[in-house]
Write a structure and sequence with these properties.
Strand content: 25-35%
Helix content: 25-40%
Shape: globular
Distance between the termini: 17 Å
Number of helices: 2
Oligomer: single chain
Radius of gyration: 12 Å
Structural class: alpha+beta
Strand order of the largest sheet: 1-2-3
Length: about 70
Amino acid sequence: MDEVPYYNRLMEIRELAERTAEDYPQRYCMCMTRFLNKVFGFEELAGLCLWGTHSWNYDSERDLYID
């Protein structure tokens, strides 16, 4: 994905989390959102969903949501 320069890095982070975090991605949305915010500078978003609360990121430069 040429238009999303951090895509490959996101996939590396996800693969690492899947290998090392028990039951990933359940219960990891806030810590991963905060981590990605620190690494990439994304905007943090949060809200209610069917199972409780959820967090995700927003890249305002590209108008992309990262979940």
